[in-house]
């Protein structure tokens, strides 16, 4: 599958925490953890499992920096 988002970071799923409607999926990308909030339905559709490889795809219209 091709997608337009350029910020694609490969890693390994370290945890999936399911809530009532939304899951938090944590992906280790070389010592740094990125956490995505996605629907429980998406977790099931993608058949996500801890220990499997996944890609974090980041698409944002704004990036803010603070100091």
Automatic annotation (TrEMBL):
The keyword NAD is assigned to this record: no
PROSITE patterns tied to this protein: MOP
Pfam families the record matches: TOBE
Domain Mop: 2-67
Entry keyword set: Molybdenum
GO biological process terms held by the UniProt record: molybdate ion transport
Protein's name according to its UniProt entry: Molybdenum-pterin-binding protein
The organism of origin for this protein: Komagataeibacter diospyri
Lineage of source species: Bacteria, Pseudomonadati, Pseudomonadota, Alphaproteobacteria, Acetobacterales
